[in-house]
């Protein structure tokens, strides 16, 4: 009965750890060979790695796991070989395994690489019955021995690489080998089988543009034959590929903190801390894991390392990508500019057509709306500085002069004694009339009074550069003046809203407006406007 009890305890103990027959590490991202034989030599360098994990610190007989790996590429990295040694201690069960791995890399294309890995494994499982506690001390002597069994198994894996992407799928304990434990007294036995473990991982390196920073998220999925699927994800941030830190989460286990550094380009040091789930924090202080490695690059000292070459290529690809984006943006801007130019040409042609169509009628509008307008062009001899009455009087006097000239000529023919005295007197009268201070001249008193009167009569005086019947045409003309001459203008409408005038400035007196007109006539705007500058007043 006592021996049967021992056997039952052993079987139950095996069932407790069925989900962890193969070691689980938190720093697999540093060494994918720990879970996949196809990943050996993937970095094209010879590497030694040591991992040690102490789980659930503070809990008696908590799991402890250690692993040593060696990997090296051969035949220009077409092949690679690896060696791995693991020890896993879980209470009274101690598992030691050794593995020899071979990897073959098949280039699908220049960028797409697929590797196949196969490993032969020996597994030794030892049961330390001395760790079993019994209530009847008379039975303790029955537990004072160890039982050890050995079996052979195999691992298989696939490893895919494409630029910054890495993905792997592996099957551990492929052959389902087993162990048989017998009771030496009654020959009863218990069987322990190695069950298959499936591992999937996907990793991608994101590089921050123009900065020596890489962000690498990695996803793991594990499935144990006959059990469910557990998942894990971690994200590591690297700086100059020298230092890194990150966070992870393992399903049903907790949060993982990650950190590490690469020292002197050869030595790798990593550390992780697993925070236990809330229900277990009372009983333990979490799990610690350290990783140390030594790498020997396969390139010569005079050559750049793979990481440097990879980074240089990556920077060039990013520069090319940036240039493509800039080129696309420039092409987009160019198309928009071409479209804008076509719209501007169309607008200018429309304005020209509108100006030519509306010019005869608009000239009349301008003539009727400009300040101090007159019909002087009908009489070129007329002095615009004189009043209407003065000009009429001058015209009458000039007619009298013409009549007197005719009379003198007739009298000369008839030997008349008439002289030219009368003609001289009339001419003097005209000169006196032009010099009279009461007449309106630009500098005369009456002219100044007229300007002052006009200033009081009108609220604003506008220096007009263009006139249109439609507000849309006036706005288009404004845009053209801004584009061609850089002049800011505004629009004022007549009180009946039938005409719209584009003006440069407004003044509260006529003299200032006239001075502005003179300035405009000598500026660059004169070559752009349709027609002439003039002054418009509005109460």
Brief descriptors of the model:
Porin; 7 helices; 14-stranded antiparallel barrel; 539 residues
Give me a quick take on this structure:
The chain is of the alpha+beta class. The protein has helices at about 1-15, 305-370, 390-415, 420-435, 445-455, 470-485, 510-520; strands at about 45-55, 65-75, 80-90, 95-105, 110-130, 145-160, 165-170, 180, 190-195, 195-205, 205, 215-225, 230-240, 245-250, 255-265, 265-275, 285-295, 460-470, 490-495, 500-505, 535-539.
Q: What's the SSE blueprint?
A:
Blueprint: H1 2-16, E1 45-54, E2 64-74, E3 79-90, E4 93-107, E5 112-128, E6 146-162, E7 165-172, E8 178-182, E9 189-193, E10 197-204, E11 206-207, E12 213-224, E13 229-239, E14 243-250, E15 254-263, E16 267-274, E17 287-297, H2 306-369, H3 388-413, H4 421-435, H5 445-457, E18 460-468, H6 471-485, E19 490-493, E20 500-507, H7 510-522, E21 534-538
């Amino acid at each position: 009965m006592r021996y049967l009890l021992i056997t039952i305890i052993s079987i139950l103990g095996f069932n407790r750890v069925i989900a962890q027959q193969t070691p689980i590490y938190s720093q697999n991202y540093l060494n994918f060979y720990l879970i996949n034989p196809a990943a050996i030599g993937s970095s094209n360098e010879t590497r030694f790695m040591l991992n040690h994990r102490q789980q659930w610190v503070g809990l008696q007989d908590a799991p402890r796991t250690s692993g040593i790996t060696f990997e090296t590429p051969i035949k220009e990295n077409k092949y690679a070989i690896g060696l791995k040694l693991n020890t896993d201690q879980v209470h009274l069960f101690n598992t030691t395994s050794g593995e020899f791995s071979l990897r073959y890399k098949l280039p699908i294309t220049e960028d797409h690489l697929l590797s196949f890995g196969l490993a032969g494994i020996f597994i030794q499982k030892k049961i330390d019955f001395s760790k079993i506690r019994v209530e009847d001390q008379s039975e303790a002597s029955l537990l004072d021995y160890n039982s050890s069994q050995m079996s052979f198994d195999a691992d298989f894996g696939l490893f895919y690489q494409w630029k910054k992407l890495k993905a792997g799928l592996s099957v551990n304990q492929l052959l389902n080998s087993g162990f048989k434990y017998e009771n030496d007294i009654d020959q009863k036995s218990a069987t322990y089988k190695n069950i298959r473990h499936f591992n999937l991982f996907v990793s991608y390196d994101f590089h921050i543009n123009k900065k020596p920073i890489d962000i690498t998220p990695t996803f793991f999925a594990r499935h144990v034959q006959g059990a469910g699927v557990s998942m894990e994800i971690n994200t590591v941030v690297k700086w100059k590929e020298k230092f890194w830190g990150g966070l992870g989460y393992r399903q049903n286990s907790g949060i993982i903190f990650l950190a590490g550094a690469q020292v002197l380009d050869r030595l790798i040091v990593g550390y992780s801390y697993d925070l236990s789930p809330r229900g277990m924090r009372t009983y333990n202080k979490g799990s610690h894991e350290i990783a140390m490695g030594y790498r020997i690059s396969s390139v010569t000292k005079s050559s750049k390392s793979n990481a440097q070459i990879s980074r240089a290529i990556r920077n060039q690809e990013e520069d090319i990508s940036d240039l493509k984006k800039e080129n696309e943006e420039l092409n987009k801007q160019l198309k928009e500019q071409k479209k804008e130019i076509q719209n501007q040409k169309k607008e200018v042609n429309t304005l020209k057509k509108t100006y030519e169509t509306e010019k005869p009628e608009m000239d009349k509008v301008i003539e009727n709306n400009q300040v101090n307008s007159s019909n002087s062009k009908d009489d070129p001899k007329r002095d615009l500085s004189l009043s209407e009455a003065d000009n009429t009087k001058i015209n009458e006097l000039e007619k009298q002069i013409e009549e007197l000239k005719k009379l003198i000529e007739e009298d000369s023919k008839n030997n008349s004694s008439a002289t030219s005295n009368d003609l001289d007197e009339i001419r003097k009268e005209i000169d006196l009339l032009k010099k009279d201070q009461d007449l309106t001249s630009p500098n005369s008193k009456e002219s100044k009074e007229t300007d002052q009167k006009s200033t009081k009569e009108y609220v604003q005086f506008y220096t007009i550069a263009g006139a249109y019947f439609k507000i849309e045409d006036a706005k288009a003309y404004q845009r053209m003046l801004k584009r061609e001459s850089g002049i800011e203008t505004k629009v004022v409408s007549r009180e009946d809203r039938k005409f719209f005038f584009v003006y440069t400035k407004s003044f509260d007196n006529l003299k200032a407006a006239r001075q502005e007109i003179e300035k405009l006539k000598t500026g660059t705007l004169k070559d752009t406007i349709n027609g002439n500058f003039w002054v418009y007043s509005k109460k």
